[in-house]
Design brief:
mainly beta; 5-stranded antiparallel beta sheet; 4-stranded antiparallel beta sheet; globular
C-alpha cells in the first residue's frame, strides 16, 4: 500500500494505492481517494480524474477514470501487464485519452 503525497491542487484529498500481482503476473491496482473535490470545481474546471501508469519501456498508460462512489469518494480497480514504476492521477477534459494533458493532482513511486 502506498500513500500519495498531499496535493496542492486538492489539499483535502487522501489518496491511496494498493498494488499486487495476480496469478498471471499482471499488476493489479486499486486506487482509493477520499475528500476529493469534483473536477468541475478545479481552476480551470475539468470533467474527470484519470489514473496513469509510468511503465518501463511502454511509456505512459491510461489505467482508467476514477469512479465516484458516494459524495467525495472515488475508486478505480484495474490491471496492466506492464512493469510500472509510478502511478499518477490527473484531472482531464475526457477519460479516453492516450497522453495526460490536464492537471496532475498526485504521483507515487511503485517498487
Amino acid at each position: 500500500t502506498y500513500e500519495f503525497p498531499k496535493s496542492s491542487v486538492v489539499p483535502a484529498a487522501k489518496m491511496e494505492l494498493k498494488a499486487e500481482q495476480d496469478s498471471y503476473d499482471n499488476n493489479v491496482f486499486i486506487v482509493k481517494v477520499e475528500h476529493l473535490a469534483s473536477p468541475e470545481r478545479l481552476n480551470p474546471p475539468k470533467s474527470v480524474y484519470v489514473v496513469w501508469a509510468e511503465t518501463e519501456g511502454s511509456g505512459v498508460v491510461n489505467l482508467g477514470k476514477l469512479q465516484t462512489e458516494a459524495g467525495d469518494k472515488a475508486e478505480l480497480r484495474t490491471m496492466t501487464p506492464f512493469a510500472v514504476t509510478e502511478v499518477f492521477i490527473t484531472a482531464e477534459n475526457e477519460a479516453l485519452i492516450r497522453v495526460p494533458a490536464g492537471i496532475e493532482i498526485g504521483r507515487v513511486a511503485v517498487d
